[in-house]
Design a protein that fits this description.
about 525 residues; alpha/beta; Amidase signature (AS) enzymes; two-stranded antiparallel ribbon; 17 helices; 13 strands; about 35% helix; globular; binds glutamine
Length: about 525
């Protein structure tokens, strides 16, 4: 079972479909592991016994040789900002702590239709506003890497060096990244084969970078947002976190495509992508944007960046310096646009229709004020305030409209690069390996985001697909990663190159040391 939990989705599917392993056994082992790693706080809730029943029905289907979905019996975790019918969906906030949606997000119903089993809902910064999973009402998520739980794991192919840092107790532990940190830890630890995150400014790629995982942000509009509780409607995309590129592709194929419940999904039918058996990078034109060479970039990430560029060149690719001149403006414009959309999106939480309601209020105004004052954390409240300020009629032109114009310039920077014949961009995802929690929280949320999202946010501004690819381990034994970005709807190219890199760098794969942990 140990090997099975960490295998590729394709391999496991084969075993499930042939009856060699039952999906109910996988779910049972996943549940056991979820329990073991509970102190990492990856999950806010786990799905009910109903799911056990479903997985047993799936076993019967296999026995009766019924038609099986592509993800038959595959365990998947869902970030807790996607609606799940009859199961709490909290957004990591007191405001929605007791909210139980009456419907499934389109991505969840598509996963289920493909046969997947949802293990639970994962932790996030409140309403996905953050980049560390440190601001959840349910407490922060700890990174598996560098934690005492790493003692339960070994590397599949090579000796694991002595773990640095003896204990992750107190505040001596590393952040998982965010805001989809719970999803990343759920996948890294082997409790599921894949997890959904959301990505508005980097929330899928950032935790994937710190947890050594593939983190795919698809083209805006390729995957339905119906049932994803909105942060910034014009930039939100469901993201996919897996241990392998092939797995991310299978999940994308299951969830992508038009949806009549989301008018922003692209109208063209989605044709499932498959990757060539032998990927070639000969002649591939790889752009290296000079604006991404920040002085704050850690030497270790810089070395990874140069090494992978060299490996690609040795494989026949052309490495070409490029310029994306408006990169620097992305974060400040994002913060204006984010806060404006947040001010409008959060207006629905007033204590009347959804979620938390403050009691002992004597007027409607007091009900609104107390509910919102108590139900939201400082981060959400300050974004609402700032957003409403930017949207005042006397400020609107100067902030919102100006930020929208700069957003256009950022998108045009990318278009100019593609027009010049660049196929793909190779950049860092994050400045360094994961920071210690106690160092990370020295900065406020706004400052954290402006540092963390620098490399990831521009892709959201332009709606581009982008993927995090883990490369190697740092001196501290933590994952170091890079990002690839491609033109809109070029997921096949993006994932082909990601897989080529994956096969060239051999980022270490984890296994449990002791299979008894699963029984
Ligand atoms: N860190 C960014 C923010 O807080 C992006 C979050 C995200 O992608 N959900 O807005």
């Amino acid at each position: 079972m140990n090997k099975i939990l960490f295998s590729s989705i394709k391999e496991v599917s084969k075993k499930i479909n042939s009856g060699e392993i039952r999906s109910s056994e996988i779910l049972k082992a996943s549940r056991k592991l979820i329990d073991t790693i509970k102190p990492l706080n990856a999950y806010i809730s786990i799905t009910s016994k109903l799911v056990d029943q479903e997985s047993e029905e799936k076993d019967e289907k296999v026995e009766n040789k019924a038609t099986l979905g592509d993800l038959q019996g595959i365990t998947i975790a869902i970030k807790d900002n996607f609606c799940t019918e009859g199961h709490p969906t909290t957004c990591g906030s007191l405001m929605l702590a007791n909210f139980v949606p009456g419907y499934d997000a389109t991505v969840c119903s598509r996963l289920k239709k493909s046969g997947a089993i949802l293990t639970g809902k994962t932790n996030l910064d409140q309403f996905a506003m953050g980049s560390g999973t440190v601001d959840s009402f349910f407490g922060p998520t700890k990174n598996l890497w560098g934690s005492e739980f790493m003692d339960y794991y070994c590397f599949e192919e090579r000796e694991m060096g002595k773990r640095k840092g003896s204990s992750s107790s107190g505040d001596n532990w590393y952040i998982a990244g965010g805001s989809s940190g719970g999803s990343a830890v759920a996948v890294a630890s082997g409790t599921c084969y894949a997890a959904l995150g959301s990505d508005t400014g980097g929330s899928t790629r950032n935790p994937a970078s710190y947890c050594g995982l593939i983190g795919l942000k698809p083209t805006y509009g390729l995957v339905s947002r119906n049932g994803l509780i909105p942060l910034v409607n014009s930039m939100d995309v469901p993201g996919i976190i897996t241990r392998r590129v092939d797995d991310a592709l299978l999940i994308l194929n299951a969830i992508a495509g038009p949806d009549s419940s989301d008018s922003t999904t692209l109208k063209e039918d989605y044709s499932p992508i498959s990757l060539p058996d032998r990927i070639e990078v000969t002649g591939l034109r790889v752009g290296i944007p000079k604006e991404y060479r920040l002085s704050e970039l850690s030497n270790e990430v810089d070395v990874c960046w140069q090494n992978v560029a060299r490996i690609l060149e040795e494989g026949g690719a052309k490495i070409i310096p490029v310029s994306l001149p408006h990169t620097e403006l992305s974060i400040v414009c994002y913060s204006v646009l984010n806060q404006c959309e947040v001010a409008s999106n959060m207006a629905r939480y007033d204590g009347i229709e959804f979620g938390f309601r403050a009691d002992e209020t004597f007027s409607t105004e007091e009900l609104f004020a107390n509910t919102r004052g108590m139900g939201f954390n400082d981060v959400v409240r300050s974004r609402i305030l700032a957003g409403n300020y930017f949207l005042l009629s006397e400020n609107y032109e100067n902030y919102f409209v100006k930020a929208m114009k700069v957003r256009r310039l950022i998108a045009q920077d990318f278009e100019a690069v593609w027009d010049a014949g660049i196929d793909i961009l190779l950049t860092p995802t994050t400045l360094s390996d994961a920071q210690l929690y106690r160092d990370f929280i020295k900065a406020d949320n706004q400052t954290q985001c402006s540092v963390q999202d620098y490399f990831t946010q521009p892709a959201n501004m332009a709606g581009l697909p982008a993927v995090n690819v883990p490369i190697s381990l740092s001196k501290k034994g933590l994952p170091l990663s890079l990002q690839l970005m491609s033109p809109i709807l070029q997921e096949r190219r993006l994932l082909s190159v990601a897989k080529w890199i994956e096969e060239s760098v051999h980022f270490p794969k984890l296994l449990l040391r002791d299979s008894n942990l699963l029984v």
